[in-house]
């Protein structure tokens, strides 16, 4: 594991990071499963309560994901206190340094601190994206073997329990 991970943190997105996010690159094999951060941030169809999260290494955003709310979440769980993690990605220039794993390990604390009354994070991950499935499992997500058909194939629904008490 890279020693720089001591300086890794999750923060809420602000526009001051747009210059970094505009240079974010995902190769086609990764882009098929995600989208660029600014594309997601500027998506007018997202709920206003969506929280955009940056995975920071020191002062540089190396990764991104959204925590969505609303009707979309109900496709993944019946839990009214869940958030949907979408568009998780690591800038290609920073791949292979353990940032994705560290960011997901920080997720429960970030949610408890920044999102009221949320006790579960859910996500859909493409069946073909085995690297992501393995990463999510290593960081506490559980696959209850429920799936749905997404735009590019079967998606596994994975759950991360976030107890509200500390």
UniProtKB/TrEMBL annotation:
<dbReference type="Pfam" id="PF00583">
    <property type="entry name" value="Acetyltransf_1"/>
</dbReference>
<feature type="domain" description="N-acetyltransferase">
    <location>
        <begin position="1"/>
        <end position="163"/>
    </location>
</feature>
<keyword id="KW-0012">Acyltransferase</keyword>
<dbReference type="InterPro" id="IPR000182">
    <property type="entry name" value="GNAT_dom"/>
</dbReference>
<dbReference type="InterPro" id="IPR016181">
    <property type="entry name" value="Acyl_CoA_acyltransferase"/>
</dbReference>
<dbReference type="GO" id="GO:0016746">
    <property type="term" value="F:acyltransferase activity"/>
</dbReference>
<keyword id="KW-0808">Transferase</keyword>
<protein>
    <submittedName>
        <fullName>GNAT family N-acetyltransferase</fullName>
        <ecNumber>2.3.-.-</ecNumber>
    </submittedName>
</protein>
